[in-house]
Amino acid sequence: MQFAEFAARATEIEDEPGDLATVDYVCDLLGDADTELPVVVRFLQGRVFPAWDATTLDVGPAILHEAIARAAGQNVDADDVEAKLADVGEIGAVAATYEFGGQRGLGAFAGGGRDDLTVAEVDDQLRDVAATTGAGSERRRLDTLFGLFNRASQSEAKFLARLVLGEMRIGVGEGSVRDAIAGAFLGVDAERDGEATETDAAVGECDGDAADETDEVAAGADEIDEVAAGAVAAVERALQVSNDYGMVARVARDSGREGLDEIALDVGRPVQAMLAQAGTATDALEEWDAAVVETKYDGARVQVHYDGARTALFSRNMDDVTDPLPEVVEFVESAVDVPVVLDGEVVAVAEDGTPLPFQEVLRRFRRKYDVEQMREEVRVELRAFDCLHVDGDDLLDAPLADRHDRLAELLGDTEAVSDVVVTDDPEKIASVEAAALEAGHEGIMLKDPASTYAPGKRGRNWLKRKPDVETLDLVVTGAEWGEGRRANLLGTFLLSARATGDGSTDEYVTLGKVATGITDDELATLTERLTPHVDHEDGQTVSIEPAVVFEVGYEEIQRSPTYSSGYALRFPRFVGVREDKSPDDADSLGRVDRLAGEQ
Ligand code: AMP
């Protein structure tokens, strides 16, 4: 395919505001791309290399501007390009303002043949740019780029410049490419057992709105929808597993659904990391039967690939970070003897094993030099929390609970796997969280035990527990005697805020009860502190004169008729005693009002 043709089609797509029509255009383009299909797919996304490949062109704006200026002729220099850029704001639009190449006029006159760029040639040359390293490489990269721009028309130059910087800006997202691949190459005929109707072609013929046209057909729109959704899901899965849009498009075209279904995870090639949304224990338990509760480590994400001989480590952005982390490599190779892909976090730890802040990990993470010396200074360890492949079994589609089992089989008796708690009890979640925070971790993650691993997705199946917004300092005005082993200890403390903020009364309004986050030792101390202030007992329940102030964390402040403040704390958690505060210094209802309003 001529690069001019690609540029013309990209311009059409850029000018098209509608998503469905965009998919149609992309679909047509993929259908026409022929042998250059993988390249066209990548170019549409502003890529020269597939997403799994960390190779970059390594061309900064300065070289690009210089190449454009040189190709634009003697009267233009990089400063002119930059001045225009400041004005126009986008390098593609700037490149499109120049007439390039002394030779071009002649070529065009002769029928446009001699000098025309093809998509494959642009790809080759940009790959050359990426491969040019060492002494004098900047000059040679500049020369190659100059050569390309010198042969480009204005519209080609626009997309060439964007491609060099890795941003196509034509409104083609990953979803559009996925739908277009399904539309272009996965006709529904094979799916519907030869029940051929005009609608069969609906998906295959790049109709972005296939279902609309099927209304009058006996088979019904639902069935078509389902088949089309199945085709899209097959493409999606192949993309998630391989991270290679070009290859997936080629396989879809050449081998259809069957070929796509055979695309497997490749040990040694990174998969996009599954991501988390912020959420609460309430969200988790509303949505799932039970929640997996894991420690949220404060480190850097790492994906471990061991192919039986060699270990490769990849960052969250799929950069290769193997060399800077030799002890993680050593650990993996000592612990595992079959090919695996693990997902986890690299953490920095102190001599005694306690976690160190994330900044310490960063000192190690991308280090190219002095790795051995830094190894002495900052100790790092792996904390694996997921398992995507073991010895030929891809586990992306297996439930998290099974993936955890596989992980435990592999690394069970090492520090590298955290304890996993599965529970439907919010109190238990709160206590795991309190313990994680106590041990110096960032918090907890809540995950759906039934969920599959969705690469690159920030879905609702992984929740990072939202940190408490702000803690409250509240007065203890009541408590309950414990039961069994704790019968002699006060627990479940009633918490109150001052009714007014100006000290005009010494009234208190109740806000909730806290029982979570307190150790037995702390309960004993608190019982000793509070017993002298007990002014009334009614069975297990005691009321207590204002004397002691607790700092309390919570998930949310809710309106509630249960307490005299009109509010209740959701999942209150004991943080500590504010020894420095008297009840007069405790928070007032006014502050509670304000915090509730800010939520
Ligand atoms: P955030 O970076 O705040 O969006 O939180 C998500 C990140 O937490 C992930 O990308 C991981 O790097 C990190 N993390 C730490 N512990 C876990 C865990 N147990 N499960 C998943 N992600 C974790």
- Helical percentage: 40-55%
Number of strands: 19
Low-pLDDT residue spans? 103-114, 188-203, 209-218
Ends distance: 55 Å
Bound molecules: adenosine monophosphate
Structural class: alpha+beta
Strand content: 15-25%
Give the CATH superfamily of the largest domain. DNA ligase/mRNA capping enzyme
Radius of gyration from CA coordinates: 31 Å
> What is the average of the pLDDT values?
88
DSSP helical segment count: 22
Q: Class of the largest domain in CATH?
A: Alpha Beta
How many distinct folded domains?
4
Shape: elongated
Main beta-sheet annotation: 7 strands, antiparallel
Q: Based on the structure given, which CATH architecture of the largest domain is correct?
A: 2-Layer Sandwich
CATH topology of the largest domain: D-amino Acid Aminotransferase, Chain A, domain 1
Overview of the molecule:
The protein has 599 residues and is α+β, with helices and mostly antiparallel strands. It folds into 4 domains: 3-165, DNA ligase i, domain 1 (Orthogonal Bundle), CATH 1.10.3260; 174-262; 275-465, DNA ligase/mRNA capping enzyme (D-amino Acid Aminotransferase, Chain A, domain 1); 471-598, Nucleic acid-binding proteins (OB fold (Dihydrolipoamide Acetyltransferase, E2P), Beta Barrel). The protein is built from 22 helices and 19 strands. The strands form 4 sheets. Strands 11, 12, 13, 14, 15, 16 and 19 form a 7-stranded antiparallel sheet that branches. Adenosine monophosphate binds at residues 275-276, 294-297, 301, 316, 345, 385, 445, 464. Adenosine monophosphate is lined by residues 275-276, 294-297, 301, 316, 345, 385, 445, 464.
